[in-house]
Amino acid sequence: MITTGQIIRCKAAVAWEAGKPLVMEEVEVAPPQKHKVRIKILFTSLCHTDVYFWEAKGQTPLFPRIFGHEAGGIVESVGEGLTDLQPGDHVLPIFTGECGDCPHCHSEESNMCDLLRINTERGGMIHDGESRFSINGKPIHHFLGTSTFSEYTVVHSGQVAKINPDAPLDKVCIVSCGLSTGLGATLNVVKPKKGQSVAIFGLGAVGLAAAEGARIAGASRIIGVDLNSQRFDQAKEFGVTEFVNPRDHDKPVQQVIAEMTNGGVDRSVECTGSVQAMIQAFECVHDGWGVAVLVGVPSKDDAFKTHPMNFLNERTLKGTFFGNYKPKTDIPGVVEKYMNKELELEKFITHTLPFSEINKAFDYMLKGESIRCIITMGA
């Protein structure tokens, strides 16, 4: 390709200040170096994590920055020594990675790569700390190693999943973060058996993906727990069969669920980040075989307590990161679930926008009106 080895000038939505609308700018994107790829982003979507760090809540602000980490695109060029990716490959950039060499990557039980594990504070490339984005010579910070709110981006090859070229990128781009996090929490971690009951705490995008996992697994009852009763009608599309709003009851919600299910649900998935919900999700599972998994990210100083007898009575509490999926190894298989019509993605996509109107996607999410908004680059 004529752009190989050259600086590319393209449009990017740049966050100059916390909480201020993104500004469409012409940026320079440097060519990829060793172990890196430059990707032409065709579709991206907005995740709550983008909004959280754009608002600069709870961490050191890092601006100017190009956000974005759920996307699909095509490899434009590759850096020195890369053999597993080549120009023209259809790919999903992922916010975490798989180097293939560390103990975590060698383990069948972990996806928490030592080298490429998520790092929200890093604003440059992993090996030299330098940005590949600039405007008039001024560096623009990266986000999560992906920065997909740019028509071109440079990503470490370990954070790039090569997928079926027949898969529609405007649909499967949402597989690269929240959907896989919730789906994998159910399918890979708590692993409900056909006919079992599952409680889902929090019916945002990740919780709905967890419910989708329970539906795929053949759960007989999927109980949605949320403080917003208006979410139940939408949740029915994802397999949720019953709804509990803790505010509607004068007893702990774990007790409500235990009474509904003759002692507790078989599995539960917590997707809120609230320590209260974490306690409820654990304590609502059945003794003897119940398994709960925590997905939501708590505040830095949060802690919770539960009586040790809950463990001694053979309840199991687990945690998960990115649904226990290894990015390069496993995410292509999630895409194939969609291609084989096992996984439904369209119902997660509530809005579509041209890149020029990306700020509307933030408005939709802040108002709670969207699950996922697909942004078409070059439009």
Automatic annotation (TrEMBL):
Residue ranges occupied by any Alcohol dehydrogenase-like C-terminal domain in the UniProt entry: 205-336
Protein name per UniProt: alcohol dehydrogenase
Cofactor entry: Zn(2+)
EC number: 1.1.1.1
InterPro entries, A to Z: ADH-like_C, ADH-like_N, GroES-like_sf, NAD(P)-bd_dom_sf
Subunit-level organization: Homodimer.
Keyword Cell membrane tagged: no
A Pfam entry, by short name: ADH_zinc_N
GO cellular component: cytosol
Gene3D superfamilies given in the database record: Medium-chain alcohol dehydrogenases, catalytic domain, NAD(P)-binding Rossmann-like Domain
Compartment(s) where it occurs, according to its Swiss-Prot or TrEMBL record: Cytoplasm
Enzyme class, spelled out: oxidoreductase
SUPFAM superfamilies: GroES-like, NAD(P)-binding Rossmann-fold domains
GO MF assignments: alcohol dehydrogenase (NAD+) activity; S-(hydroxymethyl)glutathione dehydrogenase [NAD(P)+] activity; zinc ion binding
Cell wall biogenesis/degradation in keyword set: no
Domain Alcohol dehydrogenase-like N-terminal intervals: 34-164
UniProt superkingdom: Eukaryota
GO biological process assignments: formaldehyde catabolic process
Signal sequence range: none
Organism the protein comes from: Arabidopsis lyrata subsp. petraea (Northern rock-cress)
